[in-house]
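Protein modeling request. Please complete all fields; requests missing the sequence field cannot be processed.
Requester role: graduate student
Desired output: 3D structure, token encoding
Chains: 1
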Amino acid sequence: MLKQRLEILLIGLLIGACQSTPSKQSSQIEPVDWNNEVIYHVIPRSFYDSNGDRHGDLNGFVEKLDYLKELGVTTILFTPLYESGFYHNYFPTDYKKIDQEYGTMDEYVAFVKAVHSKDMKFLMDMETQYAQGENIWFQESYKNPGSQFDDFIYYTDSLNEYPEQIFLPTKSALTEFEAWPGNKHHIVFLDLDNPRMKQWQIDFYSYWVDPNGDGKFDDGVDGFRIDHIMDDLDYKGLFTNMYNDFWKPIFEACQKINPNIFVLGEQSNWNHYGDEMVSKSGATAAFSFPLRFALAGGAGVHDMYTDPDALGVKMNPERIHSVV
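Delivered output (324 residues):
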């Protein structure tokens, strides 16, 4: 059995104006109160290995649902499940494929149904702003203007030689990032302002809400965690006003299918309370990182792009009570 990992989430439930008009198929759904959920956040491959390949998997979770329920867990939150060259499964090679070390699509559906049969919930982790170099969208469009995926990757030149890359200045040479255990990958930006890409994102998120389209949602997620959500992506000035122009239409589309869909945004700046993100994007909640730092007595951090303040987080007790 792999070593289990439990992460305690301190989530400020900024329940806001993200309720959309229910669809006909979902108009009779009882509202869910997310304030009392106990969320278990875990990398699936570090939990329970059901087939002896040394990777935790979906079937391993199904086997241990009673154990998790006995602990008091009411909601399970995974790191991403989609196919990726990174061990944590962010930056996918294929958004629509389940990592084969976790299982198959059929096993994923069986897992979600098993979670719901225990009166528990499941949140899917998403970071859909980037793609890995092995993704077919990049493979077919790189140095190939006019590719069918030309609209999906953001290039800064007409010859598709300079994709925008994470952590690097615009028009940097194509650079590999080293990942554990020594693998190297490119990480490029999706063209998030392109109408075709925006529609793809809406369709992609909507699919997981009700995979078989029967309106019962027994096979659908109960919500999403949005990783690294920013209004100006990576502070590059390329994709701005993203809360309203990019994320809000996605969340509204999902909540039109199922009004109870819960959206937990991980604000990039961990010194922020997240209330601006919630109000502008229509997310349901944000992480209470400032509260976490205050409780732990530790210094705060901004994000991966800016230096932390010398004095860390400065807490205002009245401010905490107004947003948590």
